């Protein structure tokens, strides 16, 4: 199971790079650096959490497992939302003509 998690981590890391690369290149340089730094930090925290949860669950530490799920999942979701906002996946709709009829 551990080998599969390592393989999955590598595949998801490469997929994340391929997914972010086109959007990150269009932005300003500082935003590109922030996006890549956030991606690496988010990715590291996510997989630290997965491995911590996996190890604690396999030896039966219920309290540590539930705390790690709450802590690492919370941090991972917050970082993912921040990065999605910086990349433009989540955001305010642009003002202007939306094609809708207004009364």
From TrEMBL:
Transmembrane segment boundaries: 6-24, 36-55, 67-87
Lineage top rank: taxon: Bacteria
Tagged with keyword Membrane: yes
Keywords: Membrane, Transmembrane, Transmembrane helix
Protein name: Reductive dehalogenase membrane anchor protein
Organism: Dehalobacter restrictus (strain DSM 9455 / PER-K23)
